[in-house]
Amino acid sequence: MTDFASLWQAARQQPLTWVFLTMLCYRLAIALNRQSGGHALANPVGLGALLLIGVLLATGTDYKQYFEGGKFIQMLLGPATVALAVPLYANLHRLSKVFWPLLISLLLGSLVGIVSSAGVAWVLGLDDILIKSLLSRSVSTPISMGIASEIGGAPELAAVFVIVSGVFGAMLGWPLLSRLRLGQDVVYGFATGMAAHGIGTARAFQRSDTAGAFSGLAMGLNGLVTAILIPLLLRFWH
Amino acid sequence: MVETFLVLIGLQLLGEWLARWLHIPVPGPVLGMLLLFVGLCLRRGVPTALQHGVPAFLQHLSLLFVPAGAGVLLYAHLLNGQTVWQLALALAVGTTVTLLVSALLLAGLMRWRGEHGHD
């Protein structure tokens, strides 16, 4: 005779239980996001992670045990990063007209994205691991996590910082830039992609296709430039 | 779907291998993305293997971040009361400054180029 508790003991040893629960939390988050009319605060990543944290705390499961299953989902982030080249290529034709302004803004904007948050954290005297995990907070999560583990930050913290930045930037972008007369599709889209990566891009597409395309372009290029700049900057810093 | 993942995983592995071989401190998947981008530019088009598979895969990109998002549990000890507010400040300032600088730079440079003719 097996009781419920011992059945659950067996289920938690099975990695697929955690794959299933991760997908379930994500699916619930999507449903909540749709119900809220796609509100920036009801971001699927943030909500899904919160729900999952709730499940882990409620079942008393430590993250290490969870990750026996969770790692199979996270493993796909690598191929997803490679796949970002496809939407980037699809926007290539829009590039030629504004090539030089875009390239200069990209390099300087990328640098500002890297040093701004980490700089504030450094001034406030936060832990080294926190500062290193903040460096890549303005690029999309898979790239950010890759950079963080490369330079001795914490990939999981980097992911959280990226998500918070994205939600904040997506919410702030339009109200701020339109008030400063910087609301043209190209400019608004580009700045949103630079500061708020994929979450900002999803928001920019709601304004117009051009804004979304430029946001996606900025996100992809910023990811690439940041991945190259951070290790170089750290080499000079030390 | 099989062809899509053969290309994507293959390029990631190639990127990782190149990064190690040439001592480039860039994550392997980022090099893989660059390789794919250059490949698409040279080929002047997206092959059928990627045309449908990639959008279907990227549509649920958010799912792949959820395990990492919950990973904040691992660092809960670093995030005591005061640190959380300092981090929130750092993120808010950083994101706002990045938005503003990127927008001002691009708008300024586009206007400047517009006034200095077209080449």
Automatic annotation (TrEMBL), chain A:
MF annotations from Gene Ontology: hydrolase activity
Source taxon at top rank: Bacteria
InterPro entries: CidB/LrgB (IPR007300)
Transmembrane segments: 16-33, 40-60, 72-90, 102-124, 157-177, 186-205, 211-234
Protein name (Swiss-Prot/TrEMBL): Putative murein hydrolase (TIGR00659 family)
Subcellular location: Membrane
Main location: membrane
PANTHER family the UniProt entry points to: PLASTIDAL GLYCOLATE_GLYCERATE TRANSLOCATOR 1, CHLOROPLASTIC, PUTATIVE SEROTONIN TRANSPORTER
Membrane association type: Multi-pass membrane protein
One protein family per Pfam: LrgB
One Gene Ontology cellular component: membrane
Keywords from the named record: Hydrolase, Membrane, Transmembrane, Transmembrane helix
Automatic annotation (TrEMBL), chain B:
Subcellular location(s) of the protein: Cell membrane
Keywords: Cell membrane, Hydrolase, Membrane, Transmembrane, Transmembrane helix
Keyword Signal: no
Pfam families associated with the record: LrgA (PF03788)
Record's bilayer topology term: Multi-pass membrane protein
TM region(s), chain numbering: 20-42, 54-78, 84-109
Primary location group: membrane
InterPro entries noted in UniProt: LrgA/CidA
Cellular component aspect of the GO annotation: plasma membrane
Keyword Transcription regulation belongs to the record: no
Protein name listed in UniProt: Putative effector of murein hydrolase LrgA (UPF0299 family)
Species per Swiss-Prot/TrEMBL record: Rivihabitans pingtungensis
